[in-house]
Specification:
InterPro entries: Amidase/PGRP_sf (IPR036505), Amidase_domain (IPR002502). With about 350 residues, this protein is an alpha/beta fold. The protein contains 7 helices and 19 strands. The longest helix is centred in the last third of the chain and has 17 residues.
C-alpha cells in the first residue's frame, strides 16, 4: 500500500516525511507526494482523488523512484484525499486542514504563551513570529526532536531584533543568541522552523549572532564566551527536555557538496569541513561520520547547518564549527589554520 509524504527533501523518506494531515494554503492549494505510487501487480501508476468535500488533484513530477507528486486545488477543511489503483483504494485516507500563515501565527503565539516547558525555553525572551516557519503546505509540526542545530546569522544584531529579517526572507529559527549571551525564542519547540532544509522536521535550530565577510565568505566570527555559555545551557535544556537526544555530536557529514554546475564553495572550505568532521568523529562522542545528509538527519545529538542541509552554504562558519565540542564540555579544538577563517 502507498502512503502520503511531505515533499521536504530531494527524495522523501517514507517514515520521516509521512503525513498525519495535509495542510493547504489560504487559497486552497497544496502539494503532496505519494510514496509507493507504482502498483507493481497492475503495472500502473496510482491516482489521487478527493473522496470527500471539494477539490481536485493532478499528477506532477516524480521525486526519486518511489514518490509521485500531486498538485491539489479547491481544498477546504471538509476535503479528504486517497490514492487509487484503478478503482481500488491504494492508500489510507488523509484529512486536509487549513495551514495559512495567519492561523499558524496565532498557534505559534498560543504555544509560546502557554509556558509549556516542552514548548518554551526558560529565560528566553519570547518574540513570536507571524511568518517564515512551519511549512504551511505540509505538516507544520516537528516530527520529533533529534537535537539542536547551530547556525550563524552572518550579520550583527540583538537576539530579539530579527523579526523583520525573518519575515522578509521567509526563514526562521527557534532561538537566537546574541553576542552578549541574551537568548530569544521565535518559534515554539513543537513547530518547525525554516532553518536547515530537510533537517527542519527533526532538529530545533539556534542562530548565533555573528558577522561574515560577504565578499570573502570564509571569514566569520567565533562565538563569544557569553554566547558559548548560553548555547551550552540551551543544549542542556534540549537534552533534558526531549527523550531522543544523546550528549554527543549528531551524525557528522564528511561528504562533499556541489551545486548544479559541479562547483563547491571554494576558499578551502570544501575539504576543510569534511576533514574537521572526520577528526571530530575520531575524537569525540558522536553518531559517527556519515556520507549523506539524510543519514545525519536520522541521528541524534548536537548538530549544525552544514550537517543537515543539502544547500551549499558555509554556515555556521569555521570558527563556530570548531567550537561545537566545547558545548559538550570538551576543551577548545585546536585548528592550526583557524586564523585564515576568523573575522576579527
Amino acid at each position: 500500500m502507498a502512503h502520503f509524504v511531505a515533499l521536504l527533501r530531494g527524495e522523501p523518506d517514507p517514515d520521516l516525511d509521512a503525513l498525519e494531515y495535509l495542510y493547504f494554503s489560504d487559497g486552497g492549494t497544496a502539494r503532496v507526494g505519494l510514496w509507493g505510487y507504482w502498483d507493481i501487480w497492475a503495472k500502473r501508476a496510482c491516482t489521487v482523488k478527493v473522496v470527500s468535500g471539494p477539490g481536485s488533484a493532478k499528477p506532477s513530477n516524480t521525486y526519486g523512484s518511489a514518490v509521485l507528486a500531486f498538485d491539489l486545488k479547491g481544498l477546504t477543511e471538509r476535503s479528504v484525499i486517497q490514492a487509487f489503483s484503478g478503482d481500488s483504494p491504494f492508500s489510507g485516507k488523509l484529512e486536509c486542514k487549513r495551514g495559512g500563515a495567519g492561523n499558524l501565527a496565532a498557534e505559534n503565539k498560543r504555544r509560546l504563551d502557554s509556558g509549556d516547558p516542552k514548548e518554551v525555553y526558560p529565560g528566553a525572551k519570547l518574540v513570536p513570529l507571524k511568518a517564515g516557519f512551519g511549512n504551511y503546505m505540509h505538516s507544520p509540526n516537528m516530527v520529533g526532536v533529534n537535537g539542536l542545530a547551530v547556525h550563524i546569522t552572518a550579520g550583527p544584531g540583538k537576539a530579539d531584533g530579527f523579526t523583520g529579517n525573518f519575515h522578509t526572507r521567509k526563514v526562521s529559527t527557534h532561538f537566537v543568541i546574541d553576542r552578549e549571551g541574551m537568548t530569544a525564542q521565535y518559534v515554539a519547540a513543537s513547530l518547525q522552523s525554516q532553518a536547515q532544509g530537510p533537517g527542519n522536521p527533526n532538529f530545533l535550530s539556534v542562530e548565533m549572532v555573528g558577522s561574515q565577510d560577504l565578499k570573502k565568505i570564509q571569514y566569520t566570527e567565533a562565538m563569544t564566551t557569553k554566547q558559548l555559555d548560553a548555547l551550552t545551557k540551551l543544549w542542556a535544556w534540549v537534552f533534558i527536555t526531549f527523550p531522543a537526544p544523546q550528549w554527543q555530536l549528531a551524525g557528522i557529514y564528511t561528504g562533499h557538496k556541489r551545486n548544479k554546475q559541479g562547483l563547491g564553495m571554494g576558499h578551502g572550505l570544501d575539504s576543510l569541513y569534511p576533514d574537521i568532521g572526520a577528526d571530530f568523529a575520531s575524537r569525540y562522542p558522536c553518531a559517527g561520520a556519515q556520507s549523506s545528509i539524510n543519514s545525519c538527519i536520522n541521528t541524534v545529538g548536537l548538530s549544525c547547518h552544514w550537517w543537515l542541509d543539502t544547500a551549499l552554504k558555509s554556515c555556521p562558519g569555521v570558527p563556530m564549527f570548531t567550537q561545537l565540542p566545547q558545548v559538550l564540555g570538551f576543551s577548545e579544538y585546536k585548528l592550526a589554520s583557524l586564523s585564515k577563517y576568523q573575522l576579527v
